[in-house]
Amino acid sequence: MRMDQTNSPEFDIIVIGAGPAGSAAASRAARHGATVALVDKASFPRTKLCGGLFTERSHQTYCKVFDRQFDFSHAVTRREIEFWHDNKCLSSLPDVPPMHLTMRIDLDKRLFTHAIEDGAHDFSGKSIASLDGTDVTFRDGCTIRGRVLIGADGVNSITARALFGAPFDKSTIGFGLEVEVAPDEQIPTEQPLRVDFGAANWGYGWSFPKQGSTTVGVGGLLNSNPDMKGQFSTYLKAQGLDHDPRRFKGHYLPFGDFRVVPGRGAVLLAGDAAGLVDPITGEGIALAMESGHLAARAALDAINASAPETALDRYQVALKDMHRSLRIARGIRRIVFAPGWQQTFVGAFRRSGTLRTQYLQLLAGQVEYPELARNMLRRLPRLVVNRLGGHRF
After folding, report:
1. Which end of the chain is more exposed for a tag (fewer CB within 10 A), N or C?
2. pLDDT tens for each residue of 334-363
3. How far apart are CA 390 and CA 393, in angstroms?
4. Where is the FAD-binding domain (predicted)?
């Protein structure tokens, strides 16, 4: 950290947002010798609305990005999952790749701590008043300056708002509702994970038993679900749960609508701020950590080349494979979630053990979307292939 002539601290990299993407970026950059300011309006630990599914893909990414082994003592690991549709069980799969259920209050605190331990400077609990390029001014009047800024500040990103005027496109954004089931109503942790196709239009429902809580939610495209609260109430009642809609917690969900240009010059966007969420599984933690890691690498390379303004160009090259997979996933989503096609998909899913297995392998990081798309198109009826209208995978 340096001081400029105005006595404002100067950093190589400023990271806004200390969730999985931001902590990953800060950890990577600090370990490689950069001076890093890690900024978040919250103080940790803090609550975060999220299903908290920490897949094997997330586990592998965590070990690579943070160079540590994951401590599962605060997680519930399940090896059984059920898929439902229209309140009927499509398939119950035992002995699947492990899926770890976490509380985000614990997970995010751990990742934030890693970043600070690795050398990032702690600017948590500080609200931002304004952004000017790579300079950040806080509400207390203090300004810090950076050579590169990484906005990892979630779906409502103030960084994206400063760059593009709005953090997301309301016509394509997803929306989710969740509730934490009270201990006296809790679904036993011995129960498998449950995913319900069609619990919301262009989306699904989930029930994740954890330690001391069960996270139950529904999510789908916002414009396709004008009565999401009603759909959520129906979903809860189908599971023998009855909750006051006023207790529901809602949040926007990037749902495959990623930013093709995730930043501008020396300002980069990572994680949810860049829309990097799987549009089929809804997984965002693994993509957040990976994108934070890639953003930090691009920032470091740009700074080492004495050309911070080239950070975005470097970052876009690094994101090429991730963007390609998300484009393919958006095509597959039309088969999985479109109301007119869902019965066809459900029938194929019920019959095909290969489709079910590869869905789980996707979560485990054992298969990627290009391969999944090829296999799916070979197994689904020709009618569906034709209706894709020549979509190229």
Report:
1. N
2. 877 877 777 777 877 777 777 777 777 777
3. 9
4. 264-316
Dihedral sign for Cα atoms in the order 220, 40, 274, 120 = negative
276 and 130 belong to one structural domain: yes
The domain of 13 spans 2-52+103-169+256-322
Largest alpha-carbon pair distance within the chain?
69
Residue 320 · residue 330 · CB < 8 Å: no
pTM, entire model = 0.90
**Per-residue pLDDT reduced to its tens digit, 224-250:** 999 999 999 999 988 888 777 777 889
Same domain, yes or no: 267 and 360:
no
Apex 311 CA angle, 25 and 370, nearest 5: 75
Residues 165 and 168: their CA atoms lie apart, in Å, by: 9
DSSP 352: -
- The number of domains in the chain is 3
Short-list 4, 5, 33, CA closest to 13: 33
The structure tokens listed for 276 are: 């990097």
Does 354 map to a domain? Answer: yes
